[in-house]
Specification:
The complex is a heterodimer of chains A (about 325) and B (about 525). Chain A has about 325 residues and is mostly helical. In chain A, about 80% of the residues lie in helices and about 0% in strands. Chain A is built from 14 helices and no strands. The longest helix of chain B has 18 residues. Chain B contains 15 helices and 19 strands. Chain B has 3 domains: about 120 residues, D-Maltodextrin-Binding Protein, domain 2 (3-Layer(aba) Sandwich); about 140 residues, Alpha-Beta Complex (Dipeptide-binding Protein, domain 1), CATH 3.90.76; about 220 residues, Dipeptide-binding Protein, Domain 3 (Dipeptide-binding Protein, domain 3). In chain B, strands 1, 8, 9, 10, 11, 12, 13, 16 and 17 form a 9-stranded mixed sheet that branches. In chain B, strands 4-5-7-6 form a 4-stranded antiparallel sheet, with helices on one face. In chain B, strands 2-3 form a two-stranded antiparallel sheet. The radius of gyration of chain B is 25 Å and the shape is globular. In chain B, strand 4 and strand 5 form a beta hairpin. The chains are: A mainly alpha (about 325), B alpha+beta (about 525). Chains A and B meet through helix 2, helix 3, helix 5, helix 7 and helix 12 of A and helix 6 and helix 12 of B.
């Protein structure tokens, strides 16, 4: 197992390098001068040129690339071009908020999505199935900036159970939890909708398999056959979707972060892109890529737990 | 008396005095439309987000009376008095004694002022260096006396030295000690000091108890970064915000005014949206085409669209309220027939199409789309190339657009706007470029002459002539002036009447308090 993990981590190195190169090129081919974005519309060409020199963006592109790669490999992501603050410190300050939201949304998504999907498959084309499919469609149809506002209107303004501003004090567990509920529900519902659909379709396929019929013929109770034999075999596609979605959630929770006024990685990425903050974008992408690699690795390891054949392969 | 009555009486006996003596709130929560703060070095603070809060942290030699942005209301701040030579080229400022910097950085001296103004004029350390181009030297005569020598007289030296942009005074020791970190750990002499910054979340400020005008009545300010307009509104409605950055839109103003306890502030400066016509490009080099565009713009319609509370119709090529503003600049009034006739005369009887680079920023895009619809009625089609905002700024500075829709306000003395938008030295893609997108050169003589004109009345007359000439040449077509819009709780007293603020947000002073 340890060798497997090490092999997978080593395999991620070329991916990481490719992503670094791609990010480096992409942020530079997008038009827009960071010096103008930073200095505003009253800056003279002399000031703009001076800032470009200070930021190093007047250097040849290959020189910038070598510098960037060298520093990234030693874990030195530098300082933000716009705020002059160390990038790692900024990321470290918001990362707990992103992890809280992503994990909570995932728990809600799995806790709602898997039972709903199984139920929909078991009661195919009956009221429960139709209800689950409709709920899933609703979950997918509402963008988070709409469902988020509805949540705020209902739970913050009408019933006054939760606050509108979701920027929690990390040192206070109760505050952290209170301010997590609404954003996690908003994001978790979308995830639950996806998982419901995937679970339903995987379960439908599994329920028709020979081994399910054999299990029933051998006298295994229906409930046990479904949860032990059916769901376990339907688990691979579900885990794949959960893994993929988890990775997407880390960076894509930006709309939820904006609606609930929460700090987070997604919000930093959008801000850095708007201001052409190359160094911040590069640093974020490296960190984001690393997180995705870890999530993918965990997903692969989960495959082995669900289906021993994967481990043997 | 039953046990229940006794209990109630006991409860009331506690509650009544508590209610009577309940201390007013001393912590202020402000919601700003922002992802994060940028730079808190005042000479590099260019966005509304940064400028609003910078004005609470720093002072300048002189300041606008809180709530005003009229040059007539400039009053002493860190300087308690000043005098100038007969030719107004040598100015001597006497500093207020006993002013201390926040964070234990010591007493303000003339060295800090010399350091700050020199830094403001250095393009490597300031975004406002152009304002200081006329400075020959700044020197400390003694611990509390500073002398500024100018290469040429300025229309408003005091304007440059106010609590706005490059005029803010920083601690020399703090800048040198903190280096790049100064941008997030600022040290000023103002009523509030930065306590902590949580990226993407909030900036926390505490009262500067040693503030030279007296300890602030508020203890703390939490400046929250909340980019979603809807979420800010809901948080204000829910009582979680005391002050909120608003939207310059009539619907928002009408809706917000109906909220219980909400006071909507609409104040100066107005940002004037202007269509700068690129006279270096065909067919806009033909004045008849430019006049046709001017006749096709329907300003009353634009004002109806934006809303009468938050906007007003411009009368000149610089914003109203500027010293030297010409209220009778001679703008061409909406006349579709004249527009079509002029186009035909210029050789475009079937209309024409212009390629225009524009930003995707929602407010500016919506405004441009209204203008696009208006011009279309005259047969002028705008082929809008909508790009991301930073890209737009780069492309318009590379002279790639036939016309540029630009919304801005400047220090309210005509020289600033006229120089930056209409003087030949400011033409884009030149070594001294600022924001002259139209390549206008018709009023150079008047703008230059006004700058050194010692007689106030003659100076104003020159500025007004410049505006009339620019208007007659149709270098630009004024569209609409939009005012700043915020909202605050009625329990909050700013300590002054908010009519204007050059920092674009309400000034929080030592007198600001909850009632």
């Amino acid at each position: 197992m340890i060798f497997y993990v090490i092999r997978r981590l080593l395999a991620a190195v070329p991916t990481l390098l490719a992503v670094l190169t791609l990010v480096f090129v992409l942020v530079r081919i997008v038009p827009g001068d960071p010096a103008i974005a930073i200095l505003g519309d009253r800056a003279t060409p002399v000031a703009v040129a001076a800032l470009r020199a200070k930021l190093g963006v007047d250097q040849p592109i290959w020189s910038q690339y070598v510098d960037f790669l060298g520093k990234s490999l030693t874990g030195d992501f530098g300082r933000s071009m716009v705020t002059d603050r160390p990038i790692l410190a900024d990321v470290a300050a918001v990362l707990p908020h992103t992890i809280d939201l992503t994990l909570a949304a995932m728990v809600i998504g799995v806790a709602l999505g898997i039972p709903l999907g199984v139920m929909a498959a078991l009661y195919r084309n009956r009221a429960a199935d139709i209800a689950a499919r409709m709920l899933s469609l609703l979950g997918l149809s509402f963008p988070v900036f709409v469902s988020g506002i509805f949540m705020l209107l209902a739970f913050a303004l009408h019933w006054r159970i939760f606050p509108v501003i979701g920027n929690a004090n990390l040192a206070d567990p109760l505050d952290r939890l209170t301010k997590l509920v609404l954003p996690a529900l908003t994001l978790g519902i979308v995830m639950a909708a996806y998982i419901t659909r995937v679970t339903r379709s995987a379960m439908l396929q599994v329920l028709g398999e020979d081994y399910m019929r054999t299990a029933r013929a051998k006298g295994v109770p229906w409930r046990r056959a479904v949860w032990r034999h059916g769901l376990r075999n339907a688990g691979l596609p579900v885990v794949t979707v959960v893994g993929l979605y988890f990775g997407i959630l880390i960076g894509n929770s930006v709309l939820t972060e904006i609606v609930f006024s929460r700090p987070g990685l997604g919000k930093i990425i959008v801000g850095a892109l708007n201001q052409r903050d190359y160094t911040m974008l590069q640093g974020l992408m490296v960190i984001y890529c690393f997180l995705i690699v870890v999530v993918n690795l965990l997903t692969d390891l989960t495959y082995g737990l669900i289906d021993p054949r994967v481990k043997q392969a | 008396m039953t046990f229940r009555q006794a209990l109630l009486a006991a409860a009331l006996s506690f509650a009544v005095p508590l209610a009577a003596h309940a201390a007013p709130k001393t912590d202020l929560v402000v919601g700003m439309a922002a992802q994060d703060i940028g730079k808190l070095d005042p000479h590099l603070a260019v966005s509304t987000i940064d400028r609003t809060v910078v004005a609470w942290i720093y002072n300048a030699l002189v300041r606008f009376k809180p709530g005003s942005m009229s040059p007539a209301d400039i009053e002493p701040d860190l300087a308690q008095s000043w005098e100038f030579s007969a030719d107004k080229k040598v100015w001597t400022f006497h500093l207020r004694p006993g002013v201390t910097f926040q964070g234990g950085y010591g007493e303000l001296t003339a060295d800090d002022v010399v350091f700050s103004l020199t830094k403001s004029g250095d393009p490597k350390r300031s975004a406002f260096s152009a304002d200081f181009a006329a400075f020959e030297k700044v020197e400390a005569l003694d611990k509390l006396t500073v002398r500024i020598t100018l290469k040429q007289t300025l229309p408003s030296l005091l304007g440059i030295l106010t609590n706005y942009s490059g005029g803010f005074i920083v601690s020399k020791k703090a800048v040198e000690t903190l280096g790049d970190s100064f941008a997030s750990k600022p040290v000023g002499t103002g009523p509030f000091a930065v306590a902590s910054l949580t990226p993407n979340q909030s900036l926390e400020l505490v009262a500067n108890k040693g503030y030279f005008r007296g300890a602030p009545k508020l203890e703390k300010i939490s400046y929250r970064f909340m980019p979603s307009n809807a979420s800010r509104d809901l948080a204000f409605q829910n009582g979680e915000l005391d002050v909120e950055y608003g939207i310059s839109d009539q619907t928002w103003v009408d809706r917000t005014r109906k909220l219980p306890g909400a006071v909507v502030d609409v104040f100066e400066p107005a940002e004037e949206a202007i269509l700068h016509l690129n006279m270096a490009q065909k067919p806009l080099d033909d004045i008849r085409v430019r006049q046709a565009i001017a006749y096709a713009v329907n300003r009353p319609e634009l004002q109806r669209w934006q809303g009468p509370t938050v906007s007003r119709m411009p009368a000149s090529v610089i914003p109203g309220g500027n010293l030297g503003y010409a209220a009778d600049a001679g703008l061409l009034e909406f006349n579709l027939d004249k527009a079509k006739a002029l186009l035909a005369e210029a050789g475009f009887p079937n209309g024409l199409t212009l390629k225009v680079v524009h930003t995707q920023l929602p407010g500016m895009l919506a405004g441009m789309q209204v203008v696009q619809a208006e011009l279309k009625r005259a047969g002028i089609n705008l082929d809008l190339q909508v790009v991301e905002h930073a890209t737009y700024h780069q492309m318009i500075r590379e002279d790639l657009s036939a016309m540029v829709y630009y919304s801005a306000s400047r220090f309210p003395v005509a020289d600033f706007y006229l120089t930056q938008f209409y003087h030949s030295r400011s033409i884009v893609k030149t070594p001294t470029a600022v924001t002259n997108f139209s390549h206008c050169t018709v009023a150079d003589a008047e703008i230059d002459a006004a700058r050194t004109e010692p007689n106030d009345a003659k100076q104003i007359a020159l500025w007004q002539t410049a505006q009339k000439k620019i208007t007659a040449a149709v270098c630009a077509v004024p569209l609409i002036e939009t005012l700043q819009t915020w909202v605050h709780k009625d329990t909050l007293d700013y300590g002054y009447e908010l009519k204007g603020s050059l920092s674009l947000g309400p000034l929080i002073t030592e007198l600001t308090q909850f009632k």
